[in-house]
Give the backbone structure.
Amino acid sequence: MTQLNEANILETLRQIIDPELGCNIVDLGLIYDVTITGRQVTVAMTLTTPGCPMHESIRWGAQNALLGIEGVETAEVEVVWDPPWHPSMMTEFGRAATGVGSF
Amino acid sequence: MSGALNPAKGNPAAALGVHAPSEVVPLAFMLTGILALCFGTGWFLFRPSLLSTYHYNQSVIATTHLLVLGWICSVVMGATYQLVPVALGTKLYSEKLAQWHFVLHTVGFIGMVWMFRVWNMKQVGHFGSVLALGVGLFVYNIARTLRRVPKWNVTATAVAASLFWLSCAVAAGLTIAIAKCGYDSTEGLATAAASRAVASGLHSVAAFMSRFDAISAMHAHAHLGSVGFFTMLLVGVSYKLIPMFTLSEIQSKRRAASSVVLLNIGLAGSFMTILLRSPWKLAFALLGVAALSVYIWELGAILRARKRRTLDWGIRYFLTAIVLLCPLSGLALVLSWSALPLNEFTGQLENVYGFLGVVGVVSLALVGMLYKIIPFLVWFARYSRQIGRAQVPALADLYFAPLQALGYWAFLSGILVTCGAAAFSVEPGVRIGCASVALGVATLVLNVVKMLSHLIRPQTTPLSIESSPIPRPA
């Protein structure tokens, strides 16, 4: 029996994009932490810029996607600003997709 | 900020758009503006003599107001309703007032352009008053929005200053209109006490304005609007948006603040010296150029520090407009020189100065910003409630990038050819240049149609959700 795990949570969140940057929030390095407690999933994430106009949409999208996973009853997405996001947190794929140079 | 959601109790509408106003009003302003740009470009294309010869006639003034009020003001005001709350982390004070403003603005500018065209200054004044009432609602609405800003910064200062200068520009415009029609338009009013007071006021304004040279007053009015409102907003808002879009940050807050302060002082001095035909005009023009130089210095530093190396076409449009500020500033200095001989060539340089300012700098910057704002508005309206439930397109997927590129080169070559041809009064050259600008406008229209088509036919694909075989409770 497959349990909920961080890998399948991240794989699901990989389908949520930052519409301005055109890249998913996992490869952008926006996901800081995933906590699974029974059927409850809590995700700590950030955004590239405080005051980002897509703030609520992206958070809402992440919650929606998590709730679409079978076995998830409650999903909580917390937007945090510490540590501030930096492009060095992106994956190679994310950097290539957004035109951000290497670090 | 956090939020837990139960699928049965979820309320997307409540959770979305804390800072975002409704997309309807900004979109209405922007589409009206684009329509006015189409008419304005067409007018130049079929009447190139408007630019290849120097004369103030009703067509020149009508076209100028069509572009400045119909195109630029519409887009700038729509963008302000959208961007100011987002950029400053607050909420628009009243959407209802914004809706009323749209109605008054549209009726006002269409009536003004029409009445300028038939040269009925009395009706220009009446439609101008309708427009001014709309501007009053706009200023009040944005000023109340600014009062809610949690953290005051250089962008908020520039927006506040732009509201002040916009009010001054409208007041100056109405005063000029009163000076031209005050006597005949008040004859029928002088029957009741209140009407006599209005008539007396209009006579006084007309008498006061007769002290000033009419052309100088018009130039001073034009600078209040173009520098005080448009340029001030471009400078202030770009300090927020350029770092946001290029993943950078302001490099020197002091330098950014200096540019805004200098621009305000330069404009105040320029207004007075242009109005009074003072030889000090050049000194204040130099101050304005210094302000823009500091702005370009800071913008360069922001761009050098950017983490996103690739610049999309929207940003390229905007930055090219900023580069065109350099020749525009040079022309401003030349035209401010008090010993400049007044001849036919000088008159043509004034035409080039106006065209380069309105179409070269402000319009190009606005087209660049439209490629950021319209996709955002459409995406927000169509996809913000579907994200997480389906795969949604990115903003860049809403338009054709090759059309953007074609439009960029068409605009740029058209602006340069038109300026060159206008300077030397070559009418066929002006027509060719304007045809190229019209091609640029056509690419914008096609891309806007493509963006808006997402409102009717959204393009989503199902998510492939990872699932676990944990049984749900019965």
